[in-house]
Design brief:
The chain is α+β, with helices and mostly antiparallel strands and 251 residues long. It is built from 7 helices and 6 strands. The strands form 2 sheets. The chain has a 3-stranded antiparallel sheet with strand order 1-3-2. Strands 4-5-6 form a 3-stranded mixed sheet.
């Protein structure tokens, strides 16, 4: 009987401690971003964990996407880190958002605008895959082709790249020009592509910054622990009382 009672006490203590840890963890966490798609949430979580910032992603709801939470005292450094890395990366507007179709037939000018936009977005998305790139924009210029013109003006493109603080991507200049040149039809000369690199300014916390204090255990947590402990004590008392009655009956 004593052994069973001791085991019950241990289980009760473990349950109360587990509930307290869960409650305190929930109190000290704050959502950093919400309504994210899963890829955005994964990128944010990976970047924060790599910087030794405890982050947790969770499903926000069936139609509400994903959210990422961090400890309250990590909010400021987490926001600075994500800003430097350009996270979360925004999904570019779709072709329909920029050029909504009006009517059944599009004009040649509309079709050309759609083609240039789609081409620019695809090239920018490819450049964004390079490590250290925060943002990329590609501007493509395709001159009008004349029916009787045997030597039309060549196409050209300009690329603007925002790189992370402390990162130098200028060594990729030739590779980026090759990517753009090969991605545009009839473009043969890499010198028709210009690439400009700009560094994102490194953000820092002010000298007098003080991290917010973690929350003290709320009253409802103390109530839950008290109720659990009271229920356990009542169970133990009842168990011992029944044991005494059984002993008397046997005696």
């Amino acid at each position: 009987m004593i052994t069973i009672w001791l085991r019950f006490q241990q289980l009760l203590k473990t349950a109360v401690l587990f509930m307290a840890v869960l409650a305190l963890s929930a109190c000290n966490e704050s959502p950093l971003y919400s309504s994210l798609d899963e890829q955005q949430a994964n990128e944010i979580e990976a970047a924060l964990l790599a910087a030794n910032i405890n982050a947790r992603k969770q499903k926000a709801g069936k139609d509400n996407g994903w959210s990422v939470s961090v400890d309250r005292h990590d909010i400021a450094p987490a926001m600075l880190l994500l800003s430097e890395k350009g996270l979360p990366k925004e999904n570019p507007p779709t072709l329909h958002d920029v050029f909504p179709r009006e009517g059944f037939v599009s004009s040649p000018r509309e079709e050309k605008a759609r083609y240039i936009y789609a081409l620019s977005q695809e090239l920018a998305s490819t450049i964004m895959l390079i490590d250290g790139v925060v943002a990329a924009r590609v501007h493509v210029a395709l001159p009008e082709k004349q029916l009787l013109d045997d030597s039309p003006a060549p196409a050209s493109a300009s690329v603007v790249i925002i790189q992370e603080p402390g990162v130098d991507l200028s060594g990729y200049d030739t590779d980026i020009k090759a990517i753009v040149t090969d991605g545009i039809e009839d473009m043969k000369d890499v010198n028709r592509v210009t690439v400009k690199f700009f560094s994102k300014r490194k953000a820092s916390l002010p000298e007098n910054f003080a991290a917010p204090e973690t929350n003290t255990p709320p009253a409802w947590l103390a109530g839950i622990i008290g109720i659990t402990a009271g229920a356990g004590a009542a169970g133990i008392g009842g168990y011992r009382y029944r044991g005494k009655r059984r002993d008397r009956h046997v005696g």
